[in-house]
Design a protein that fits this description.
With 371 residues, this protein is of the alpha+beta class. It has 10 helices and 24 strands. The longest helix is centred in the N-terminal third of the chain and has 18 residues. It binds manganese (II) ion.
């Protein structure tokens, strides 16, 4: 079994050729299929998948096999993601001393997503992973059975450069692609908040996944691809599998034009009333989660948000730990009667919905659509 190493590849595209880019599929092969269908993916296109195929979803093995089949088609390239690389690393180094960590991970994934990559691998080899010892017991059978899948993951390039773009899961440490040859796979794949942290302005647009774009928001909670024109970075991770209101994005690059399609499986409703947008909205994200609780109520609590200094009411159910708040936006969305909204959560005070990738409150009447 091999482990991924930093590999920097370049590829020639044809003039006018579409490049479709997605990533962070995280065990959602059905979402990927939907997006390829929506974009009309065909043999003339180049498909670039920015890695993180595995975990945080219902079908990691299915997602991996779907990606392998696409790459075998000859016009798709998948890059390695930090989760993919780390999973291989864990399986490769699995022994008595580390089995308990993997067992704990498998158990916690059952709670969050119902399954995990290792559980799926074990199941296909006839192991149910009922106790800690089963984790190690399944290893040899897994290594033998999934040689093709593991070789594929280990073979994935880290950085891909075309005439006009650079693709990488997390980000580039150095400005030019080839200067990153000495960086480790994890430095380039697990580059958190790349668009904020990198000091570089790149010569070509750098297209990345890994960091859910919502985490770059301080006013608005949104999941659509995000352009940083100053640094020339296009971030496309819609938080699929990580956030219940997230989505999988697929960006279409053609002749310098950028468009995208996105997919989630939230239930859809039709707005029966119009409402106007609230002014000066606030988004409390994981990056700015600290609050001071001023008055705790049963349903709503009054808090001071430390990052912005704002005092506001948040649902009490979102408060946790020592003064921390889960993702929350107080934005009242602009909505026209008859528009389609994705239902995120119903509350006694109205609904939290997503419209065109933006999350906020809808306070009017609505009609449910059959799913
Ligand atoms: Mn990642």
């Amino acid at each position: 079994m091999k482990l991924p190493e930093t590999k920097i590849r370049s590829l020639k595209t044809r003039p006018g050729q579409r490049i479709l880019v997605t990533g962070d599929i995280h065990g959602h092969p059905g979402y990927l299929e939907k997006l390829l269908e929506m974009a009309g993916f065909c043999k003339d296109d180049l498909l670039v998948i920015l890695g993180d195929i595995l975990e945080k979803g219902p079908d990691s093995l299915g997602a991996l096999r779907k990606v392998m089949a696409l790459c075998e088609g000859g016009n798709a390239v998948c890059l390695v993601g930090n989760v993919d690389a780390w999973r291989l690393h864990i399986i490769y180094h699995l022994q008595e001393e580390t089995a308990e960590d993997l067992w704990n991970y498998v158990v916690s994934c059952r709670g969050w997503w119902g399954t995990s990559f290792y559980q799926e691998l074990a199941a296909e080899c006839g192991y149910a992973l009922i106790c800690k010892e089963d984790v190690l017991a399944a290893k040899e059978a897994i290594l033998a059975h999934f040689e093709k899948e593991f070789d594929f993951l280990a073979s994935l390039p880290t950085v891909l450069e075309t005439e006009d773009y650079i693709f990488v899961h997390g980000g580039l440490k150095e400005k030019l692609p080839n200067e990153n040859a000495g960086c480790s796979v994890f430095e380039l794949t697990k580059y958190d908040a790349f668009a904020e942290k990198t000091p570089h302005r790149f010569d070509k647009w750098v297209v990345v996944g890994h960091w859910p774009v919502a985490l770059y928001g301080y006013q608005i909670q949104q999941y659509n691809p995000l352009r940083n024109a100053e640094k020339r970075i296009l971030s496309i991770d819609g938080g699929c599998g990580v956030k219940s209101e997230g989505q999988l994005n697929l960006v279409i690059l053609q002749d310098g034009e950028v468009s995208f399609v996105s997919y989630d499986d939230l239930p859809k409703v039709i707005a029966k009333e119009s409402q106007t947008a609230s002014e000066n909205p606030l988004f409390i994200s994981w990056s700015t989660r600290k609050v001071e609780v001023l008055k705790k109520g049963e349903e709503l609590s009054l808090v001071r948000h430390l990052h912005s200094g704002r005092v506001l009411e948040v649902p009490t159910s979102l408060l946790y730990g020592d003064g921390e708040c889960m993702d929350y936006s107080d934005y009242v969305l602009p909505v026209e009667e008859g528009e389609t909204l994705s239902m995120v959560q119903k509350t006694a005070h109205g609904c939290i919905v997503k419209k065109d990738g933006v999350v906020g409150w809808y306070l009017g009447e609505y009609e449910e659509l059959p799913s």
